[in-house]
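Need residues for this backbone.
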């Protein structure tokens, strides 16, 4: 067993929760905070429209690819060391992104940010599941889920305000004071905790394989919008990505002595179903922020600040949904909440699929977007509970890493696929009637509505998949006592 570090103080449970939530908020915020800032950022850094997508994708792909490694590192190396390393790397990369003067510098900084987030995010959930127990665990996960979900919506609001009032560079600089505060508090108060029998052997090869494969796959899908699906570069990228994913599976199952993903985890039906549902709903919600951002600015003519404010009701709805979900979780279990959440999301996306150039925010966007956001808050807490309650506590960090990876992989694939299909729809309408009055305004909206209609279909599939969840999943079990699970070192 480990021994306590005399230089650190015992942190009250509330402070541990705050440490976890602040870091998770930063990580999730940076997935969406750049969306409203992309037009201004693109002009300053000379991005093309397709190139600007990589400001989002560079972060999401490295985040998704290395989350599994980050989850295992929290279990093997220790929650305090991993938390501090993740916060430090994320904060330094934020400074680099804020000072970027070329597109290449920005993409590189965003990739490093994603790596820092991948190290940090699983450690935040590990802090919670090793600190709280019973009903308090459900409430703590609810708070963590509310912060994680709200980060996505608040990103639009904060990004718009900072871009409109100061500069787009401050969407990155805003992370610095939060990161510095999190570092200081964690150094003073956070004790070390890791699995007593852990050996520090991390599957770097597996992480590189899955990240490279996903990057190639997403690059091929995104490039198809401009080059066409039959282009040699597109075929090679997609083929290489798929081949890399096969190589990753072979490596994990046959070669790696300490695999990144022990596939024994997926013997838990609860974990498997939770991850599949997360891929589906995570992808739909991720794309929603992106397309609404462009609808607000391109169709409704909003400036960055107004577009950001338009996201505020969604942020509030996520928080309300997460709090309601955490209170009902112990009594109802996971499956009923997933079914209600998926059904609400489907209805919201179906309504958004009927937007037009004549739609107004109050009449056509506010209600459906709030419904989708409330559903998001309702879903994330039970999904986190289902993914972690069916595994050994020693694997809590890995299980949370797998769940977060599913969310990010679903988001990146969804944005690439839906973005490509929306662009195809827009381009086809413009090509069919290039001189038609208003086509340059109506064609992009037709692309957005196609994406929303497909998102409605995806969440219907998620509703069906949720029925496969074991009926009794979702009664949170006590977290292990710190003295038993691994004392502070």
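Answer:
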């Amino acid at each position: 067993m480990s021994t306590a570090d005399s230089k650190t103080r015992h942190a009250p449970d509330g402070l541990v929760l705050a440490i976890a939530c602040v870091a998770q908020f930063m990580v999730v915020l940076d997935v969406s905070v750049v969306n409203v800032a992309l037009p201004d950022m693109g002009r300053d850094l000379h991005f093309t429209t397709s190139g600007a997508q990589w400001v989002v994708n560079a972060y999401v792909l490295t985040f998704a690819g290395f989350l599994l490694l980050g989850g295992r590192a929290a279990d093997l190396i220790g929650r305090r060391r991993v938390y501090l390393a993740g916060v430090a790397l994320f904060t330094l990369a934020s400074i680099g992104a804020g000072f970027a003067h070329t597109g290449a510098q920005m993409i590189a900084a965003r990739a490093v940010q994603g790596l820092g987030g991948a190290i940090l995010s699983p450690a935040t959930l590990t802090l919670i599941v090793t600190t709280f127990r019973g009903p308090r665990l459900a409430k703590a996960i609810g708070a963590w889920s509310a912060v994680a979900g709200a980060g996505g919506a608040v990103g639009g609001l904060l990004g718009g305000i900072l871009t409109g009032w100061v500069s787009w560079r401050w969407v990155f600089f805003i992370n610095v004071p939060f990161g510095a505060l999190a570092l200081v508090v964690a150094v003073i108060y956070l004790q070390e905790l890791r699995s007593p029998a852990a050996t520090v052997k991390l599957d770097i090869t597996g992480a590189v394989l899955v990240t490279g494969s996903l990057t190639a796959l997403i690059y091929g899908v995104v490039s198809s919008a401009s080059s066409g699906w039959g282009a040699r570069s597109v075929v090679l990228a997609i083929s290489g990505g798929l081949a890399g994913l096969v190589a990753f599976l072979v490596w994990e199952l046959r070669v790696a002595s300490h695999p990144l993903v022990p596939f024994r985890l997926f013997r838990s039906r609860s974990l498997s179903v939770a991850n599949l549902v997360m891929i589906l709903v995570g992808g739909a919600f991720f794309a929603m922020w992106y397309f609404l951002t462009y609808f607000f600015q391109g169709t409704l003519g909003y400036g960055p600040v107004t577009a950001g404010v338009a996201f505020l009701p969604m942020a509030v709805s996520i928080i309300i949904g997460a709090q309601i979900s955490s209170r009902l979780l112990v009594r109802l279990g996971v499956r009923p909440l997933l079914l209600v959440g998926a059904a609400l999301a489907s209805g919201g996306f179906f309504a958004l699929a009927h937007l037009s150039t004549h739609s107004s925010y109050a009449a056509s966007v506010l209600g459906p977007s709030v419904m989708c956001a409330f559903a998001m808050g309702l879903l994330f807490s039970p999904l986190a509970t289902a993914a972690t309650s069916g595994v050994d506590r020693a694997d809590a960090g890995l299980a949370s890493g797998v769940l977060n990876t599913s969310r990010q992989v679903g988001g990146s694939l969804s944005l690439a696929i839906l973005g490509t299909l929306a662009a195809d729809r827009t381009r086809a309408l413009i090509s069919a009637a290039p001189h038609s009055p208003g086509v340059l305004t109506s064609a992009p909206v037709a692309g957005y509505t196609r994406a929303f209609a497909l998102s409605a279909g995806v969440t219907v599939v998620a509703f069906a998949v949720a029925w496969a969840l074991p009926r009794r999943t979702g009664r949170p079990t006590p977290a292990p006592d710190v003295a038993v699970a691994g004392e502070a070192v």
